Amino acid sequence: MRHVLLIDLVDEAEAIARYEAWHAAGALPPAIGASIRAAGIAAMEIYRTGNRLVMVMETDDAFDPDAKAAADATNQAVQAWEARMDQVQRPLSWAGDDAKWTPARRIFSLAEQP
Predict the structure, then answer these.
(1) What are the DSSP calls for 58-75, one per residue?
(2) Is beta strand 52-59 parallel, antiparallel or unpaired with respect to 2-9?
(3) What CA–CA distance (Å, rounded) separates 88 from 18?
(4) Which of 108, 101, 106 is CA-nearest to residue 9?
(5) Which residues does 103 contact at the CB level (< 8 Å), separation at least 6?
(6) For 7, phi and psi rounded to 5 degrees?
(7) How many Å apart are CA 105 and CA 53, to the nearest integer?
(8) What residues pair up with 54 in beta bridges, in sequence order?
(9) How far apart are CA 45 and CA 17, in angstroms?
(10) For the chain, first and last CA: distance in Å?
(11) Is 31 helix (H, G, I), strand (E, B) or coil?
């Protein structure tokens, strides 16, 4: 299943540069990659335009976002990573109080068109 999520970064060049450096090839802490994969996330990409981020995830049938959140809450490496991300990420203005990444709803698919 494909998931598309959005979040903003602090709109400062230094914050954006730090975020990109933390996500550069080979920079992700191994424990974070392991946590993502263990949750049933088969692929994940993050795209940026300006200070807006778009995450595209492909998950297997076993993926459960609530189970991932519960596992993350007890994983010290994930909590440290999230604290680092909180320095530069800002939820979208219409996101809920406890939201971080906001899911996007698909409104168009070429495959559904004549």
Answers:
(1) EE-TT--HHHHHHHHHT-
(2) antiparallel
(3) 8
(4) 101
(5) 3, 4, 5
(6) -160, 160
(7) 15
(8) 6, 47
(9) 17
(10) 23
(11) helix
Structure tokens at 102: 């906001």
- DSSP helix/strand/coil, 88: coil
d(CA 83, CA 78): 9
> CB of 6 within 8 A of CB of 92?
yes
Residue-wise pLDDT for 52-91, tens only, equals: 999 999 999 999 999 999 999 999 999 999 999 999 999 9
Q: Is the pLDDT of residue 96 over 90?
A: no
d(CA 29, CA 16): 19
Q: Which two tokens stand for residue 21?
A: 């450096």
Q: Where are the alpha helices (DSSP H) in the chain?
A: 13-22, 30-38, 65-73, 76-86
Q: Is residue 98 over pLDDT 90?
A: no
pLDDT digits (tens, 9 = 90+) for 40-52: 999 999 999 999 9
Q: Which residue has the tokens 């778009």?
A: 54
Asked whether 55 and 104 are in contact (CB, 8 A), the reply is no
